[in-house]
Amino acid sequence: MEGAVIFSTQHRKFLVILCGIPSSGKTTLATRLALLMERSGAPTAVVGSDDFRRMMPLYQERFPPDREPIIRKATLRTIAFFLGRGVSVVSDDTNYYSSMRHELVELARRAGAIHAIVSIETPLEVAIKWNEERGLPIPRSVIESISEKFERPGSKYKWDRCLASFDLSKTPADEAAKEVLKLLFSLKHEEKTVASSSSVANEIDKATRKVVSEAVRRAPSAAKVLSETRKAFVKEALKAGLTKVEAESIFRKRVEEVLNGLDAEGR
Question: Which element (helix H / strand E) includes 248?
């Protein structure tokens, strides 16, 4: 693209995936970490879905679920944009489902970036208190709901293990940022492996076809989109070395996200 600035690829680029409930201190940590990364020679951007929600005034009045697929897509594309230009990214989002983190892990792999998951484990009651002190920008029910749904990193999949975890009510953000930076710079690129076992590939293929078949019975008009989604996902799953069980679980959530997005678009 004419006039595009692309930073040198000689330095390593990173995608740091923060996860945790709202108002748990993620944004403060993300900002401190990004500044440390910059001082260490890694151009870094902090990207979060709230940045895009603020662009839509409707969010000031109410939370419109039908806008969330657009917000998610804008967030992922912006992260990909920065990584594609040699800029490291700190994902400042709740990322409370493993499927959300998996999307980011795959994005990092495609961009040739080193990824790391950092779990923020500030207690619910502290997050609610901090939210109240900030003037209740987030409904308490939203914080409690995400806390209940939160899938702890590494509880299901090896790829989902976190680099570090912090209770930011006990560990100052500056100290946490320094610890993450130290651990981050000790990481190496993953060796890119593609599952070679035809049996695993066959199992994943069959499992995802079954999920699509079930979904199409509910939403016949989504058949083409789901078929394309399935083909792309199978490639991702094999590249990530997922088992059949892992792939099926993640794909079911992916299908629900696609169907919700189509509903929001009125298709």
Answer: helix 244-265
CATH superfamily of 14-184: P-loop containing nucleotide triphosphate hydrolases (3.40.50.300)
Distance CA(71)–CA(35), nearest Å, equals 25
Which burial class, exposed, middle or buried, applies to 225 when counting CB atoms under 10 A from its CB (0-12, 13-18, 19+)? middle
Q: Are 204 and 234 in contact (CB under 8 A)?
A: yes
The tens digit of pLDDT for each residue in 116-151 reads: 999 999 999 999 999 999 987 888 999 999 999 999
CA distance 98 to 211: 18
Sheet holding 164-166, edge to edge: 44-47, 88-91, 14-19, 114-120, 164-166
- At residue 191 the predicted structure's pLDDT band, cuts being 50, 70 and 90, is very low
**Domain residue extents for the chain:** 14-184, 198-265
Q: What is the pTM of this model?
A: 0.70
Query: For 251, phi and psi rounded to 5 degrees?
Result: -65, -35
